[in-house]
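Task card 7
Instruction: Convert sequence to structure tokens.
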Amino acid sequence: MKNMAKTELCYCLFLLLAVAEHAAATGSTVKFLPGFQGQLPFELETGYVGVGDSEDVQLFYYFIESESEPDSDPLMLWITGGPGCSALSGLIYEIGPITFEAVEYNGSFPTMILNPYSWTKVSSIIFLDLPVGTGFSYATTPAALQSSDLQASEHAYQFLLKWFVDHQEFLENPFYVGGDSCSGMVVPVITQIIAIKNEIMEVEPFINLKGYLLGNPTTFEGEDNYRIPFAYGMGLISDELYESLKSNCKGEYFNINPSNVLCLQDVQTFNELLKGINNPHILEPKCKRFSPRPHQLFGERRSLDEKLHEPNNLPGLKCRGTIGKWERCASNLQYQMMVTNSIPYHENLSSKGYRSLIYSGDHDKLVTFQSTQAWIKSLNYSVVDDWRSWTVDNEVAGLVFDERRTLWPTP
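Output:
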């Protein structure tokens, strides 16, 4: 169970923040966190906002103000993928201002450190546990626990309306919606809902929407087929198997006609060869989805997970109960995916002049950079800046794929 330790630690670190004032839309300010030395050098607020019929869905959020100019810097709503992975994933492991010190676990309380590359250096971010059943978000009735991507998108909009009522000082800030992975299906929907509501001008408050951003986003049915050329390009399969797959499967590798025995055999060989690969990042060790990089943090001693089931063993920390079991990525989410293609949302939003940033990690085998390039190219937008390297501190940190734009004005 040691590979669950990091997840369970996050649970206890934030549990005391989550349960307090859980029905208050205004949230609670957090100045100290266990494991972090001294007062937090940034503004953190946590709380709940009720949405849906009779507010029977309670959405939990973490809000972090920009560390630069919060009065004018952009404000972003961040939705972690999964679906069903807590916003804590984005906050701790990806773009937030704090993370864990990557040292072997020795039985003591782990240390939290600042992330020098946090996006909150230049932007305020609302990390939202969406859909209901994700992270600390919960339903007050069994019926309200049933959700879909379309309903979750509407819940996100309702959340924003209520959140802005209590945070009107951010109404004029440029607003963006962001997310990654499976959020590629809901972020464009949320963005379009905001755009439509802004157009009809019948809903207050007005949200100063400027655009959206997505990382390795799930976008359309058939993306799985790009995993074969991705694996070949990364040197994970042989020339012979790749040529056989192309010949026998004709580009359809995962929705195979049962009568196509040769294709089935090739795909089975492919799956067997790559069963030890970590799909979200092919260079990382393969481990359970809820616990990244355990080899950096935990040794062979008694696991932190065991200690966290004995909260009194940790000085000053007593975990309190929650509504249901907390998981970083919900294993029994009652959620229906109704959007199977978000490209029409991208087309509509870009035609209205909203900006978008789509970025890809080039070692993700689940949503490959090839599939992302394919759907962007399918939009047939004009290329205004050719493929080029992107540098940080005079080192190549990535590549910019053909900046494209429509002829429509910025909203």
